[in-house]
Amino acid sequence: MVESLAGNVPLLLLVAGLVLMVLEAVSPGAHLIVIGVALVGAGLLGVLFSPFANVLVLALLTLLIGAAAAYVYREFDFYGGKGTARTTDSDSLAGVTGYVTETVTTRSGEVKLEEGGFAPYYSARTTDGRIEEGSEIIVIDPGGGNVLTVESLDAIGEDEIDRALARDQAETEAAAEADAASVADTETDDEPADDAAVDPNDTEPETETETER
């Protein structure tokens, strides 16, 4: 089969283009779609029309179709974000939301992302516990686009609420302690002095000497 492909350039281009497109679908972010479309287009024309089977003609067709594919890739927004890449880079998956299609545990699981490119289904793991099928998730660590680390949106929401409640409770306790300290200081200032002034007329008479007796 390899020899037949080597002797048939249009078929070789067609197969190579299809392989690149599959790779782009499996691992989005490599931007192989333009090259894949160019090779598939040139190879298909070469297979269907024998005059185009010449190597030079195929090379020219590849360049022309590639330029057209690049133009469409840039000008028409198929995946959102005018003027941005149309496939999803693995690093950009951080923070993307989706839902669980297969229960996610620390060892297995699958999710579908809302912005996952051509293939929105990804293998996923959780750092702790399990996330049931149908639960909404958010990507914590893209993991290079191969295995995602995800967390349940419900769990994250509960953590935020708990932190907010703890913060409010701490502020309330601090305010109560400040009020108590202020009241204690006020009571201390209102107390009378313990030591009264000594009247000089109240001094006791001196003890009589033996001569006066």
Automatic annotation (TrEMBL):
Example of a GO cellular component annotation carried by this entry? plasma membrane
Query: What spans are recorded as compositionally biased (Low complexity)?
Result: 172-185
Q: What is this protein called?
A: NfeD family protein
Q: Which UniProt keywords apply?
A: Membrane, Transmembrane, Transmembrane helix
What InterPro entries does the record point to?
Answer: Membrane_assoc_protease (IPR052165), NA-bd_OB-fold (IPR012340)
Transmembrane feature ranges: 6-23, 30-49, 55-73
**Extent of Acidic residues compositional bias:** 186-213
Q: Where is this region: Disordered?
A: 167-213
**Where does this protein come from, organism-wise?**
Natrinema thermotolerans
